[in-house]
């Protein structure tokens, strides 16, 4: 069943993506392609100018990043390609497990982490972040579920499926400690988001807890099998991660400049519109380095 | 001292120069290993972010290892591992012995069924089997215990028990079932090898004095087969201790899953992997000692003198070292007199 729903999901996505692409092309979206910007490219540290940067992504998070056959697609992927073009960088995208990305950046295996990372203070100790998007944490359940979500406390007494290493796992663990003894919160954490989604569809978990636009996407492509419950909480910025070294900071500054250029020439807005996530667009003033507030 | 009477012959012990070179190289590597295990790295290298005022940290983060090795999360994880391993092994051993006996049955259907079971459960990855049992509710939303096929006959549906699959197969139980059934396939081969290792003459003799097949199996064959079955079974128990770490992939927070939860939050992956490894090593050591004594017990019928236990060997070695010094001293004293 996993294989069938994956194929169906891929087909739906290809259909949706090509439809959106067709409409954007026919509407003549201005500045829909990124171009090299010499001023921004000058900011890239010398170490990164001549190497192929390894970009780590966990492609189980549609519409941000997912696998379409053997190609990675998603708005994070398109945005990173646009940033690389603006800065004249050579990048190589790799699909890896989410919980290993920050560790991989700290140990020098990857130079950029582009996987819908929520920028928070704990992660900022390990990597530099360039904020580029904002999202909340959303909840979805099976269509016939009677569960309600009015905040993290309503998870008490439920079984929640999360992806390992995500902010939702941390928040669920914190909530679990504060739940009363007779309403235990059981957390089922699996290594990929698709495995966590399967846990909800097979009934192993009552609800799935993940980023809000992902929840929206899962519900919209489920053909009525799932529904969103409650509204998103803990809206926080997403960050592109770079190493916590001087060169890494320099790379983050260059990426920040490239993002500002992409907002100015409309490419940022077009990419978000293509994938249906314009609600999370960040104003230029919020495109900062390490802007976590918690 | 020279009792052979010939003054021109010099008697010396055999020299083993190759052995001495080997000892030297081994000592060198041991010294290098100990040195690097307890080396320190400067601030900023790798994951070294020490408190203010401290310039270096342990390369292997021994301070973090000491901090996390007895936290309740890790100990709860260890408890789950220690529950998961015997439960899975009991299912594996019991089912494995049954399958081995079925395999050696003269009835073709029984032996084919046993072979097919082994073929299927050895032929699919454990990982896949774990996921299968976790998501079984996608195939069978409820399990019913009743009389099979009766639901095709109208008005005679008899069901004693309806069970929701997800309440039966929560991650822990799914892991026990998956690991147990997988282990049964491997244990059936081990048990079979033990049974066929017993000399055919034993079975002939038992049949000759009128024992039934069941009596032969229970009283003559199995006790002798145990000697061949125990060492690989001990191996399998120790292996299951580590294979249980795969259960973390389906959400069981056993030892490895517990340490992963900690390092996903504080990013101290090396320290926590060392913590998990140390606990696994400790339990493996205890199990190995247990296996050694169990093997000695079952070797009673086969060996005249059982091999020395580690304690006996240690006492013998110590006595030998002491004698070397005291005997030599006595000899010098004799010559001096």
Which properties best describe this structure?
heterodimer, A: 294 residues, alpha/beta, D-Maltodextrin-Binding Protein, domain 2, 2 domains, eight-stranded mixed β-sheet, three-stranded antiparallel β-sheet, 11 strands, globular, B: 337 residues, mainly alpha, MetI-like fold, 12 helices, 5% strand, flat
Brief overview:
The complex is a heterodimer of chains A (294) and B (337). Chain A has 294 residues and is α/β, with parallel strands linked by helices.
Can you offer a commentary on this structure?
The complex is a heterodimer of chains A (294) and B (337). Chain A is of the alpha/beta class and 294 residues long. Helix content of chain A is 38%, strand content 26%. Chain A has an eight-stranded mixed sheet, sandwiched between helices. Chain A has a three-stranded antiparallel sheet with strand order 2-3-4. In chain A, strand 8, helix 7 and strand 9 form a beta-alpha-beta unit. Chain A is globular, with a radius of gyration of 19 Å. With 337 residues, chain B is mainly alpha-helical. Chain B contains twelve helices and four strands; from the N terminus they run H-E-E-H-H-H-H-E-E-H-H-H-H-H-H-H. A two-stranded antiparallel ribbon of chain B has the order 1-2. Chain B has a two-stranded antiparallel ribbon with strand order 3-4. Chain B is flat and about 100 Å long. The A-B interface holds A 1-2, 99, 102-103, 106-107, 122, 125-126, 164-165, 169-170, 173, 188-191, 195, 198-199, 201-204 and B 46-47, 49, 131, 134-138, 141, 164-166, 169-171, 249-251, 260-261, 263-267, 269.
CATH architectural type of the largest domain in chain A:
3-Layer(aba) Sandwich
CATH homologous superfamily grouping of chain B:
MetI-like
Helix/strand order of chain A, N-terminal first: HHHEEEEHEHEHEEHEHEHEHH
Strand order of the largest sheet of chain A: 5-1-6-11-7-10-8-9
CATH hierarchy class name of the largest domain in chain A: Alpha Beta
| Total beta strands of chain B | 4
- What's the number of helices of chain A? 11
Given helix and strand content, the structural type of chain B is mainly alpha
Helical coverage of chain B, percent range:
55-70%
Beta content of chain B: 5-15%
Radius of gyration of chain A: 19 Å
- What is the string of SSEs of chain B from the N terminus onward? HEEHHHHEEHHHHHHH
**Structural domains of chain A: how many:** 2
Radius of gyration of chain B: 29 Å
Q: Assign the CATH architecture of chain B.
A: Orthogonal Bundle
Shape of chain B: flat
The average pLDDT value of chain B, as a whole number, equals 88
CATH-assigned fold name of chain B: MetI-like fold
- Biggest sheet features of chain B: 2 strands, antiparallel
Q: Specify the number of helices of chain B.
A: 12
């Amino acid at each position: 069943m996993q294989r069938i729903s994956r194929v169906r999901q891929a087909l739906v996505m290809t259909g949706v993506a090509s439809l959106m692409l067709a409409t954007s092309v026919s509407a003549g979206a201005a500045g829909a392609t990124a171009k090299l910007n010499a001023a921004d490219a000058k900011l890239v540290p010398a170490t990164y100018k001549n190497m192929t940067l390894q970009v780590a992504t966990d492609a189980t998070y549609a519409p941000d990043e997912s696998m379409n056959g053997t190609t990675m697609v998603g708005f994070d992927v398109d945005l990173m390609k646009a940033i690389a073009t603006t800065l004249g960088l050579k990048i190589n995208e790799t699909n890896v497990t989410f919980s290993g990305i920050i560790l991989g950046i700290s140990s020098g295996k990857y130079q950029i982490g582009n996987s819908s990372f929520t920028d928070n203070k704990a992660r900022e100790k390990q990597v530099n972040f360039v904020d580029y998007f904002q999202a909340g944490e959303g909840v979805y359940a099976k269509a016939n579920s009677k569960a309600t979500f009015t905040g993290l406390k309503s998870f008490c007494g439920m079984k929640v499926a999360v992806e390992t290493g995500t902010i939702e796992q941390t928040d669920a663990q914190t909530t679990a400690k504060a739940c009363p003894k007779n309403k235990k919160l059981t957390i089922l954490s699996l290594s990929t988001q698709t495995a966590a989604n399967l846990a909800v569809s097979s009934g192993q978990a009552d609800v799935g807890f993940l980023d809000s636009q992902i929840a929206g996407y899962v519900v919209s492509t489920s053909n009525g099998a799932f529904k969103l419950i409650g509204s998103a909480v803990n809206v926080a910025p997403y960050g592109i991660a770079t190493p916590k070294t001087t060169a890494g900071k320099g790379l983050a500054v260059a990426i920040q400049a490239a993002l500002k250029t992409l907002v100015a020439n409309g490419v940022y807005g077009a990419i978000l519109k293509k994938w249906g996530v314009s609600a999370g667009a960040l104003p230029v003033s919020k495109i900062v380095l390490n802007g976590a507030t918690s | 001292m020279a009792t052979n009477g010939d003054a021109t012959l010099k008697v010396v012990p055999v020299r083993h120069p190759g052995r001495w070179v080997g000892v030297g190289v081994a000592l060198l590597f041991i010294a290098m290993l100990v040195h690097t295990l307890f080396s320190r790295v400067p601030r900023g290298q790798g994951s070294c972010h020490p408190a203010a005022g401290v310039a270096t940290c342990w390369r292997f983060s021994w301070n973090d290892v000491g901090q996390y090795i007895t936290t309740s999360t890790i100990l709860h994880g260890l408890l789950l591992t220690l529950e998961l391993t015997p439960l899975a092994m009991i299912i594996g051993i019991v089912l494995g012995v049954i399958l081995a006996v079925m395999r050696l049955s003269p009835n073709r259907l029984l032996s084919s069924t046993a072979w097919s079971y082994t073929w299927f459960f050895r032929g699919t990855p454990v990982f896949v089997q774990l996921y299968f049992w976790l998501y079984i509710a996608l195939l069978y939303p409820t399990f019913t215990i009743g009389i099979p096929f009766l639901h095709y006959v109208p008005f005679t549906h008899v069901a004693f028990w309806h069970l929701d699959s997800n309440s039966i197969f929560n991650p822990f139980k799914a892991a026990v079932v998956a690991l147990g059934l997988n282990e049964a396939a491997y244990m059936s081969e081990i048990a079979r090898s033990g049974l066929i290792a017993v000399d055919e003459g034993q079975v002939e003799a038992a049949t000759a004095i009128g024992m039934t097949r069941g009596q032969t199996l229970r009283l003559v064959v199995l006790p002798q087969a145990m000697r061949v079955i125990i060492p690989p079974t001990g191996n399998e128990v120790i292996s299951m201790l580590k294979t249980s770490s795969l259960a973390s992939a389906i959400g069981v927070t056993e030892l490895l899953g517990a340490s992963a939860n900690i390092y996903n939050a504080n990013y101290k992956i090396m320290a926590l992997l060392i913590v998990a490894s140390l606990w696994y090593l400790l339990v493996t050591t205890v199990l190995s000692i247990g296996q050694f004594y169990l093997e000695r017990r079952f070797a009673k019928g086969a060996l005249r003198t059982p091999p020395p236990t580690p304690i006996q060997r240690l006492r013998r070695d110590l006595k030998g070292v002491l004698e070397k010094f005291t005997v030599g001293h006595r000899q010098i004293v004799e010559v001096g007199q």
